[in-house]
Amino acid sequence: MTISERIDALDRLGSLIRDEVSGAFEPVIAQSIAENPWFTPESVKTSLLTISSEYLAASTLKDWVSDYDIRSDNPKRVGLILAGNIPMVGIHDIICTFVSGHHSVIKFSSKDKVLLEYLIERLEKIDSRTKAYFTAVERVKDIDAVIATGGSTAATHFHYYFSKYPNLIRKNRSSVAVLTGAESRDDLKKLGGDIFTYFGLGCRNVSKLFVPRDYKFDTFYESIIDYQYVIDHNKYKNNYDYSHAIYLLGQHHFLTNNFLIVREDPTLSSRIACIHYEQYDEMDDVVSNLNGIEENIQCVASKNAIIGLPHTSIGSCQSPALFDYADRVDTMAFLTGL
């Protein structure tokens, strides 16, 4: 297939998702929820529609690939070891490998297999030639390169096991938001989406806030009230109750609105149903702090761009574009360089 034909197939898949997300996809969505209790009909549909709008439109794909020298004369077998923390989190690696003309040797996560396999099956029905680009495996072997995503411990294992191959290994990252106190209620409501979408399980979910000294959280809590539905999810509520009990027993100071715990803590990563905050006096202190731990950060969300920091608009953390690469490492540059 030519690159134009591959892009056309993906564009048609995007249209199919939009047309059938509340129809033919329903049984597959139900099966995926049985496979991973953290998935909900709403979160799966959110992911599907985001993928179709941000990743699977011909015009967007053409603009994206125009920055790369894509050749199809020397395809490689690329092992893809996918995560499963949020619905179809591995789709970007699959799209990158397909568009670059390589063959994907895919080790699906046991927590997110059904949806991705279904999308690949639908792509094959759109154009049968796409079948030659994908192989699902239980163990990744007989490959020329590998892209693997996992936690920090898994990353160490991947580096050792795949050291002889060109590799792109990802570990845990977190996202933060930098507030100035000038944010409107609407801004803070959008921030709620960055915190609660997918119950905070993704690396693009905001897990820490940088706030001006003596910041008052009243307006923040009032602005995110529409997200209180998360406490109705059994697994989320169990995590909230556990953290609440731990902090009470440990006599830690924290704030809560009965569905989100806010606690001052210097660490980036927070428990599910919790978010950390750190106070600052000068914005330069925030810039210096974040630049010192850049390798652990995926997104820096703020209302306005901050000089010296990468910028993601508040409310858009969970709507990444094709060029918003995991770990901020250019996956397409890696693949086209093989």
Taking pLDDT < 50 over at least 5 consecutive residues as the criterion, the unreliable ranges are none
Q: Which homologous superfamily in CATH is the superfamily of the largest domain?
A: Aldehyde Dehydrogenase, Chain A, domain 1
Beta-strand percentage range: 15-25%
CATH topology of the largest domain: Aldehyde Dehydrogenase, Chain A, domain 1
Q: Tell me how many strands there are.
A: 12
Number of domains: 2
Q: Which overall shape is indicated by the principal axes computed on the Cα atoms?
A: globular
Largest sheet strand order: 8-9-10-7-6-11-12
What composes the largest sheet?
A: 7 strands, mixed
DSSP helical segment count: 12
Q: What is the percent of helical residues?
A: 25-40%
The SS-based structural class is alpha/beta
Q: Could you say what the CATH architecture of the largest domain is?
A: 3-Layer(aba) Sandwich
Mean pLDDT: 95
Radius of gyration: 21 Å
Series of secondary-structure elements, N-terminal to C-terminal: HHHHEHEHEEHEEHEHHEEEHEEH
* C-alpha end-to-end distance: 19 Å
CATH level 1 class label of the largest domain: Alpha Beta
